[in-house]
Amino acid sequence: MRSYLLVAAVIIGATTALVGCSTLQRAVEIQSDLDGLTRSGVVGSIATLDDATTSAVMTSGVPNRTNGDSIGKNDRVRIGSVTKTFTASLVLQLVAEGKVDLDAPIEQYLPGLIHGSGKNGTAITVRQLLQHRSGLPEFAGEPGADEWIAANENRTLTPSAAVAIALGKPAQFVPGTSFVYTNTNYIVLGMLVESVTGRSYADELQSRVLDPLHLEDTYLPPAGERDIRGDHLTGYQDLGGGLTDVSRTEPSIPWAAGAMVSTGTDLNAFWRALLDGQVVPAAQLAEMTTPQVAATEAEGIGYGMGVSATELPCGVTYIGHSGGIYGYYTLSGATPDRAFTVTLTSTPKDQPDTVAMLSHALCP
After folding, report:
1. Nearby residues of 17 by Cβ (< 8 Å), 6 or more positions away
2. Does residue 167 carry a pLDDT above 60?
3. Model confidence over 240-264: pLDDT tens digits?
4. Does position 7 have pLDDT exceeding 60, yes or no?
5. Residue 105 DSSP symbol
6. Would 264 disulfide with which of 49, 247, 294, 341, CB 3.0-4.6 Å?
7. Rounded Cα distance, 62 and 2, in Å
């Protein structure tokens, strides 16, 4: 096992020095958490913690099982469903611009996509898609499996084909009456972005979020680009015969619901900008981060629009999202004071205590 701590801090004056010491202490606790995950079988993990003045990157394990190199502080990972927060941000920007109405039926923007299948597209609103309250069934199988199999079989999938797969199944409930998390909702939302803007989802993501925030290590791979660019952590999955390298996957399947690649540094910058009102205007941000009762009752979490809101044991509210895709599990988000991202590259034998880890990073 290899582990090391990278701490970069800019300390100005006595007050900021105290903040720096606090971040260092948090980093020590997080390092202990990561090393515990390594002992539990995780191949590699990386955590990034920062506030306005200090930054710390902690790693444990190795980036891959073949050469035992050290994990780099800006190694890329697949972030899975954390992608949904970016998609929700694009939609809410369009809402703020008056181009999308949250309570309008999706049929208004994507005529025939759902209604033409025999299901009532006029009953499903944009708001319900963002909140996973549409009743649309899941199009994909086991999270990550479809992407990995498709990469090995040299297959791609269009968003409309993914939605067609979902619409071939029974609706889960009457729209607006319950909460069930599905990737299908965010595939439809990606299509909404393209329909309203007349540009590709990837181009809108780049021009509206990635470029303005200078997130240079974050990207959405195009269909057919199955390898991760540059230095990255290799993801592993136990497929019955031991751990298998599953980091090569087909991005067209999760697309706007889970295909993005990023780093902890970029994700933390995104969350800080989001909560500061630099990504989504204040009115839409308030709706985005307000948890829904139906989601809380059904799942034990408060889900808003592309984000979850969780009150930590210390009383601090954490806004974030998790992302699970074959070989990678990412937990990323922020409080008003700090941002924190952690990624694991295989499943540990013992279930990690994510609330404890978040508390170590984010509680006063």
Report:
1. 11
2. yes
3. 888 999 999 999 999 999 999 999 9
4. no
5. B
6. 341
7. 7
| Annotated catalytic residue 81 | yes
Phi, psi of 14 (to 5 degrees): -65, -40
Strand-strand pairing, 308-311 and 44-50: unpaired
Separation of alpha carbons 60 and 157, rounded Å: 35
pLDDT digits (tens, 9 = 90+) for 185-216: 999 999 999 999 999 999 999 999 999 999 99
Residue 104 CA, distance from chain mean position: 26
Closest CA to 125 of 196, 175, 190, 178: 175
Q: Residues 55, 81, 134, 247: which is the catalytic one?
A: 81
Total domains in the fold of the chain: 2
35: tokens are 């090393």
Give the strand pairing for 243-245 and 261-262: unpaired
Q: Is the pLDDT of residue 297 over 80?
A: no
State which residues form the domain around 273.
77-362
Task: For residues 228 and 102, state if they share a domain.
Answer: yes
pLDDT > 90: percent of the chain: 76
Q: Do residue 12 and residue 42 come from a single domain?
A: yes
Distance, in Å, from the CA atom of 279 to the CA atom of 282, rounded to the nearest integer, reads 9
Does residue 12 surpass a pLDDT of 50? no
Query: 230-253 burial string, b = 16+ CB within 10 Å, else e?
Result: eebbbbbbeeeeebbbbbbbbbbb
